[in-house]
Amino acid sequence: MSALEQLFNPQCIAVVGASPKPGSFGGAVLRNLTTHYRGTVYAVNPSYQEVEGVPCFRSLAELPQVPDCVGIAVAADLVEAVLRDAAAIGCKYAAVFSSGFADTADEAGRRRQASLQALARELKIRVLGPNCTGFVNVASGAACNILPSIVDLPMRPGGVSVAGQSGALGYVVLQAMHRGVGFGKLISVGNSADIDLADVIDYLVDDAQTKCIALLFESVPDARKLSRALRRAFEQGKPVVAYKIGTTDAGRQAALSHSGMLAGSAQAYRAMFLRNGVVQVNSFESLLETAIFFSVFGQVAPTRTGIGIISGSGGSVVMAADKSAECGLQLPPLHDDTRSALAQRLPSFAAIANPADITAESIRDHRMYQECIEIFARDPAFASVIVLMPSAHGSAAADRARAITELSASLPVPMSLVWINEWHQGIGSGIYDACPTMATFRSLDRCMAAHQAWFAYARCRAQWLRQVPEPVPNVAIPRGDALRRSAQLSEAESKRLLAGIGVNTCHGAIVSSAEEAMQAADAMGYPVVVKAESEFIAHKSDIGAVKLDLADAGAVRTACAQVLQACQQHHPELGDVRLSVQRMVPTGIEMIIGARVDPDFGPLVVYGFGGVLVELLKNVAVSLAPVPRQEVLDQIAGLQMAPLLQGYRGFDPVDLGQFADQVVRVSHLIQQNPWMAEIDINPIILSKDSAIAVDALITMQA
């Protein structure tokens, strides 16, 4: 049994701070429980003898039994005393609804939360919150939650459990029960002083009722712990659908004021989700529909690559073809047997194709939809069938809905339905919503995106199941001189270190004058490059301290003067700066490999299209370090400019495998050397037979 089972599936709950006052948190929790809960409820408040028809006790010590969970709805400065009382009677779990802790974003609130956290550890009592709305267990009716309108919810059990910080947004999702959608649990972690999102995920992974976990959150106190929990969910085959909010500067500041935790890097979260098989959605509206789809079909691995689409509207099948193409979904032509069966069933003017327009005859002929669905489901090319439903005409619409939902349970492939009608609660829609054996969408875009994610999730799990552990290179390197004047290595030092781990670099000669530079250039052959060589100048191109494609000694002399002048102008404190002379690397595609240590996520590696426009183009991928080679290749293939690497309008195809190998080595380098803070290799010139780093910078930890 999970360590949190007693909290989220309690047999007895006590509400401290229960009150009949309008708007009180304690009163709302008690009303929700007395309406829905089939367990034992106690009210605790010395000011009352009864609240909401429930006998009220003066203290926890007076209760006739020890509750599994105590809901705490008192002022912030009284919370610790209640926790002590709960621990004294042997209660092990509490949900703290009170605000005024780290959510205030001031020092006093942070101190109050730190004190609460320390006390919980001392008392060995697990705390949900503070500043949370609580939880709802739909199956048992344990609505230990402060939101007053939960009292009006029809408790419909289902396979989706929702977890996050914002209890109000989670409740908005839960209101889909009003239209027939079923749920498992709603859990709000609030400030996460003790129980955090990772703990909740671990609990829901073991929860038999939960078939898919829907996450809606801004931030977490321990990103690496979250990553471990997500990985466990993935390996156990329990899909996680996440909507991460707080990805902009404005959103991050709002997150700080909401939960007391600053939202982390959107790219780092995306990398963590990718590594752990999380289905990430980019809108609130997508969260529930995608989670419902995965709760029904997430453990069904598609054995085919195509989808079949049926509609009674010609315009909608054209839309569906467009949207499927946008999502990269395949619409295979109909098998001969499918085409023949449809020709016998449909009127002569029907479009027998995929997508199929079964015409407006489907309004009059009540069995047409289900018979065509059955025919489509037998097509050997289809992994899934999508039904577009624009019709909500009279009682026939309800009869059709009952027939289609009944049919969905017996089909050999998953079936989804898209309700294409602005009458969102139109006739029959509630029947589709309540069906546990199919997924219903109110957006064609979201349906196609969910199918795209389904195929990707299945590929990810298949790769994991057949993966062979990659060899781990030993690239640990001593830090060296701890008394350096600079926190970063020079270009020459950085390249020397990178060459030692197998990264191809362009070496040169380090000189002190124009005469020495010309001698070096004559010896190595033209054309050459002249750069400033200093660990104090991180971005030489920005100040004009790089001169390219120098064809002769005269050009080298001029370039040396210009580089030294730029250094004197921008960094007069450096005095005499040495120069680096290097062979000009043949043209190719400019790429980048970078790495940094994120305070929340640990080592990260970035790779993709580089050069001086890297920050403008933003055509890069981010992965957790170390990164598997296949992940590098998959991520690069998904970049917008990826066609350049395969050969495009005169460009030769490049040696992407060599580049991927170098990304892997750099990811191990940042992971195995805690003294490194950042690695920047930009650009790497990628050609058909080489990948050469022409500039590099390694920054050390302070």
| Derived structural class | alpha/beta
Principal-axes geometry comes out as flat
List the domain count as a whole number: 4
Reported by name, the CATH topology of the largest domain is Rossmann fold
Query: Strand order, biggest sheet?
Result: 3-4-2-1-5-6-7
The poorly predicted ranges are 254-264
Number of helices: 23
User: Radius of gyration over alpha carbons?
Assistant: 31 Å
**Total strand count, please?**
29
Q: Output the CATH class name of the largest domain.
A: Alpha Beta
Task: Write out the CATH superfamily name of the largest domain.
Answer: Succinyl-CoA synthetase domains
Query: What separation lies between the terminal Cα atoms?
Result: 45 Å
Please summarize the sheet with the most strands.
7 strands, mixed
Helicity range:
25-40%
What value does the average pLDDT take? Answer: 91
What portion of the residues fall into strands of 2 or more residues?
15-25%
Q: From the 3D coordinates, which CATH architecture of the largest domain would you assign?
A: 3-Layer(aba) Sandwich
